[in-house]
Amino acid sequence: MENKRRNFNGSFKAKVALAALKGEQTMAELASEFGVHPTQITKWKKQLLEGLPEIFSCRRPLFTAETAEYAEFSIISVFSAVFAFSAVNVLADGEGGTGLVGKKIWP
């Protein structure tokens, strides 16, 4: 039998971390309730506490190196897709480049 790694979304992690932060239940009780190991709950709680000051800070950066890299990749992907569509469109008819649009692209 193959064990598959479970992935939890951000809202689930936040819900578990907030429940741990409240302190109304023990880690063992939370682990049993949510089906997560107590160590994982502790890590999520720590991440929550470390990230809270940044949420309320007005000086947090809008773009990081990671978001800039993603934006650059997205722009390149869009231009590549448009160019590929244009090339297929131009070559589709084989008669002077009218393509699928029906407008003359070149003489």
H/E element string? HHHH
- The count of domains is 2
Count of distinct strands:
0
Class from secondary-structure proportions: mainly alpha
Tell the overall outline.
Answer: flat
Cα distance, first to last residue?
65 Å
Measured as a percent range, the helix fraction is 55-70%
Radius of gyration over all CA atoms, rounded: 26 Å
Strand proportion, as a percent range, falls in under 5%
What's the number of helices? 4
Low-confidence stretches: none
Mean pLDDT across the residues is 75
The largest sheet, given as strand count, sense and whether it forms a barrel, is: none
Give the gist of this structure.
With 107 residues, this protein is an all-alpha fold.
Structural account:
This protein is 63% helix and 0% strand. It starts with 9 loop residues before the first helix and ends in a 16-residue tail after the last helix. The chain is flat. The chain is mainly alpha-helical and 107 residues long. The longest helix has 27 residues, at 65-91. The protein has four helices and no strands.
Write the layout of secondary structure elements.
Elements lengths: L9 H13 L4 H8 L3 H19 L8 H27 L16
Q: Which keywords apply here?
A:
single chain, mainly alpha, 4 helices, flat, 107 residues
